[in-house]
Input
Amino acid sequence: MGKLLATLKKDLLLLTRDKVGLLFMFGMPIVLAVLITAVQNSTFDLVNNNKVSLVLCNADTGACSRLFRDQIEKAGIFDITEKECQKGAIKLNDLMEQEDALVGIFIPSNFTEKIRASSILVTEQILHDLGISGDRLQTKQLMAPSLVTIYYNPVMQESFRYSIRGAVNGAIQLTENKQLLNNLYANFNEKASPDSLENMIREGQTGVKEITVSQNGMAVIPNATQHNIPAWTVFAMFFVVISLGGGIVREKTNGSFLRLRTLPTSFLVSLLSKQITYLVVTISQTIIIFMIGVFLFPAMHLPKLVLPESTGALFLITFFSGWCAVSYAMCVGVFARTEEQSNGFGAITVVILAAIGGILVPSFAMPNSFRTILNFSPLHWCLESYYGLFLRHASFGTIIMSLMPLLGIILFLQLLTFFGLRQKRLI
Output
C-alpha cells in the first residue's frame, strides 16, 4: 500500500506540473460547454421565442391579400414590416437590407384575382358534381396560380426555411378556404359566409399535442444545456490523452520504466497509480462542468442543468466513461514513440471519435453509412449512457445494459495496452 501511495504522490506532482495538459483537460472543455450551449440556446430562442424579422411587400389591393397578411401575422413567428412595392419584387432585396430582415414576402398584383378565379372554378365543379348546378363548367383546367415569392437572407439555414415555408403555405390555404366558403355561400344564400362559421371551423380544428418520449413516463423538456453539458464532459474526459499519453511516452524515453524494473516493486503498481490519478481527474472534470451548468448557467441567462435523481447511476456512468478515457490515453501512450506522436495522434483521434460518436454532429443527423461506424466510437457509448439518464430518465437496469459495450471497449483497450507493454519489453 505504501508503494502505491508513493507512486500516486509522484503522478500527482507530475500532473500539477503539466500546465498544457491541465489547460486541455479543464480550460478548453469549459469554454466549449459555455460557448456551444449559449449559441444553441440562442438558436432555440430564435425558433421558439423570438420572432423572425419579415418585410412584406404587397402589390395587390384586394381583400385576399389583406386576409393573407392577417393570417401571416396570426402565425405568431414573424415581426412584420410592411413596405410599398410599386416596382414589383425587384425592390424587395434593397428593402430587406435596409430593415436588416431575414425574410421578405412579395404578394403579386393579381393575387386576389387569381384566388377568386380559382375558387369560382372549384365551386362550379363541386356544384356540378352534386347535381345542384346543371351549367357546364367554363373550363376543365384551372388557371395558372399566382405565385407568392419568399426571399431569404443567405444566413438562413434550410431548417428555418422549412418552418417559414410551412407558415406561408398555411396562410395561403386559409385564404383560399375562406374564399371558397364565400363562393359556396354566395351560390346558396347569395351572401358571404358569416364570421361565426370561420371561427367555428378554426376552433374545431384538430390540435397537436407534443410529448417527448421517456422510458419512465416522465415529461422531459430537452434544452441546449441538457444536451451539451454531458457531451462536452465526455469530450473533456478523453482529452486526458494529452497529459497521460505524453507522460507515459516521457517515462519510456527517459528510462523511467527501466529504472522501475530495478526497484523492488511491480510495474503494475505504476500503471494502477496512473489510472487512479487520471480517473480522479475525469471525475473532477465532470463535477466542475456539471456545477457550471447548475450554478453559472442561470446567472448567464442560460437553461439550468437539471441533474438526474439517481446519483448512483450518474456516478457509475462517470466512472466507466472516465475509465474508458484513461484506458484509451494509456494505450496511445504505450504505442506512441515520441511525445509529439502521442499528442498529435491522441488529439486528432479524439476529435474524429467525437465527430462520429455524436458529440460534434448529432447521431440522428448522420447518413446511414455512418450509423455502423459510430458504434465503434467509445465516446458514442459514453454519450448515450448520459443521455439515457439526463434525457430519457432511463431506469438503473437500462443504464447498466447501456454500459456493457463501454465495458467491452475498456477491456479491449486494457488488453491492448498490456500486450503493447509486453511487446516493448517494458513489463
In short: The chain has two domains: 8-43+215-423, 51-203.
